[in-house]
Amino acid sequence: MLAGSTAEAAALLRAAGALLSDPGLRGPDTLAAAMIPWAPRVSALVKVPVLRRLLPWGIERVLPGALWFEVVRTKYMDEVTREEIAAGARQVVILGAGFDTRAHRMTGALRDVPVFEVDHPVTAARKQARLRTIPTAVSPAVRYVTIDFNHEDLATRLADHGHDPARRSVIVWSGVAPYLTPAAVDTTLRWTAQQAPGSCLVFDYCWQDVVDRTCRDPRARALARSVARHGEPLRWGIPRGQAGPYLAERGLRAEEDHGAADAARYLTRRDGSLAGPMWEFGGFVRCRVPGPGAA
Predict the structure, then answer these.
(1) CATH class of domain segment(s) 65-288
(2) pLDDT beyond 60 at 40
(3) I want to staple 275 with a disulfide (CB 3.0 to 4.6 A). Which of 84, 104, 136, 267 is the partner?
(4) Which sequence spans correspond to the domains of the chain?
(5) How confident is residue 50, by pLDDT bands cut at 50, 70 and 90?
(6) By C-alpha distance, which of 11, 42, 41 is closest to 27?
(7) pLDDT of 85-109, one tens digit each?
(8) Rounded to an integer, what is the distance from CA 86 to the centroid of its chain?
(9) Is the separation of the CB atoms in 189 and 179 below 8 Å?
(10) Hey, how many other C-beta atoms are within 10 angstroms of the C-beta on 158?
């Protein structure tokens, strides 16, 4: 890995994506670089003028497909967030927020919509300290919900900060679920199913064979080894093609399940050629709480 944690690694990929010169490929997270600390790691190059332009190329040499995966994930989840708010969602919940900057760079779409960022106290404090170095990134709509998942209840902590489960929400869960235990993922999905009808959850997942390390793709095997070596192994996945039934068992209706084959609209250069290939280890899902009022 090129950074100190999976959260920082994702921020580095978003920062590199924002440096791409072609507007058809360029990632939207122009604040991600500020989430990377000065440290004796390759990731700090994102802060060095001139040299940082080499970062996307360097990442693709070390982790082929990773940059394109993060560009697609960021664009897709941004798109879902905007569409859900336009369709009537009145709250945004970002689970395992890490160094996510949506609340600070999507201020137009999120105007008057409270954003609840849920994370461990240590990570939340580190993020807020880094945000203070960007005056334009301060957003009064953000409510930081710190939680110790081993001892505290998510619904209770959110309610303490003003979250209303009876109001339609869009819930963003980016780059988190594959590192949790199956029981923890199950608990979160069942909590989502108890939200207001029409509420939406967008998240990414790995295929189960990637988690089990039975996948033959050498890039998938390399990723699994790398994150395990850094103390954050892949723990949860969904068998290929089974996202719909898996979510239905937990009270949610899958509406979209995208993979590498659907990424062209996010990775088309100005001249019409495609970038990539991106990682193809799982998918990006939009699912919904069914019932009256559901879209």
Answers:
(1) alpha beta
(2) no
(3) 267
(4) 65-288
(5) low
(6) 11
(7) 999 999 999 999 999 999 988 988 8
(8) 20
(9) no
(10) 21
